[in-house]
Design goal:
The chain is α+β, with helices and mostly antiparallel strands. It is built from 5 helices and 6 strands, in the order ββαββββαααα. It has a 6-stranded antiparallel sheet, with helices on one face.
Length: 174
């Protein structure tokens, strides 16, 4: 067993204390840095950073970043949800560490959609009907998984299908 325990801190973001969601930082009792490439390989990290080492996952609208000595999770409903995610991650970290001999480690993040490829499929009329000031801003949000083809009222059916197909090639959220 690599990760035996952690101490968690729950807080509201200082930049906007009115947010209903909370964030969590778990300070790990053990250094899990050596497990990060294996965890990334098994769970399909969204981003992988070599220096300082960290792997980021996007899971059900949350961003989870695992560092050697801490785990950060955003957009949580409450303390109970934080516990559920941290317990799941602890199991995953320990499982991956136990099976590391059978896993090919990876220091690469997942491929990311290109904003300009998305923009090519949009109407490019900057109508603002989607709530964004330009189609470029909308394309950027689509590339992040925040918006989708159905959020553009002016998008033709054929372009919508092409955009869905293009975005299906990227794992932005589980």
């Amino acid at each position: 067993m690599l990760l035996k325990g952690y101490q968690k801190t729950i807080f509201r973001p200082k930049c906007n204390p009115g947010f209903e969601s909370v964030h969590c930082i778990a300070h790990l009792d053990q250094d899990i840095g050596e497990a990060l490439p294996y965890l990334n390989a098994e769970l399909g990290g969204f981003e992988y950073f070599r220096d300082p080492p960290a792997v980021t996952f996007r899971v059900q609208g949350k961003i989870i970043t695992v560092h050697p000595l801490q785990i950060a999770v955003n957009a949580l409903k409450d303390d109970a949800e934080a516990d559920k995610i941290l317990q799941w991650l602890q199991r995953e970290i320990n499982d991956v560490w136990e099976r590391r001999e059978q896993i090919r480690p990876s220091c690469q993040g997942a491929p990311k959609p290109k904003v300009l490829e998305i923009l090519k499929l949009l109407p490019k009329i900057n109508c603002r009907k989607c709530g964004q000031p330009t189609c470029m801003v909308f394309a950027s949000l689509v590339s992040q998984g925040v918006k989708g083809p159905t959020d553009c009222p002016e998008l033709k059916v054929e372009s919508s299908e092409k955009l869905k197909t293009y975005m299906a090639g990227f794992s932005l959220d589980d």
